[in-house]
UniProtKB/TrEMBL annotation:
It holds the Pfam family MINDY-3_4_CD. GO terms for biological process: protein K48-linked deubiquitination; proteolysis. This is Deubiquitinating enzyme MINDY-3/4 conserved domain-containing protein. Belongs to the MINDY deubiquitinase family. FAM188 subfamily. Residues 1-122 form the Deubiquitinating enzyme MINDY-3/4 conserved domain.
Length: 125
């Protein structure tokens, strides 16, 4: 804390209503400030847990922010459906002819996350 410092705090909640109330109460202090978007992204990442976000991704070494500060597809999907999958297609697919040696590509699994309220959305939309 201090001039230019950042204070990080966390709270555990077990109900969606409690999380919504915390967001509403803290809106002016952290979402509306100069680091509001960054605070929100950090909150979403920590809510999912960093380990789980990495498991969601095809390549966990890839950054969530791309060139020119654009969100990666993983970050877009995390914000929209709650999972940081690398692709927008339904389910999973193997790249290559042989599933035993091909690369597993992870898409949105509707049975797990439900039907998203927003259709196909890439980082360029």
């Amino acid at each position: 804390t201090g001039t230019g410092g950042i204070t990080v705090s966390s709270r555990r909640v077990s109900r969606v209503a409690d999380a919504q109330q915390l967001l509403e109460e803290a809106f002016d202090s952290w979402l509306a400030g100069p680091c509001g978007v960054l605070s929100f992204v950090c909150s979403v990442l920590l809510s999912r847990t960093l380990a789980t976000v990495r498991e969601d991704m095809d390549d966990p070494s890839m950054p969530l922010l791309g060139r020119f500060g654009h969100c990666s597809q993983e970050l877009v999907n995390l914000m929209l459906v709650g999972e940081a999958t690398s692709n927008v297609f339904d389910g999973t697919r193997f790249l290559g002819d042989d599933p035993s040696s091909g690369l597993l590509l992870k898409g949105v699994i509707g049975d797990r996350v439900g039907v998203p309220p927003i259709g196909f959305l890439s980082g360029f939309e």
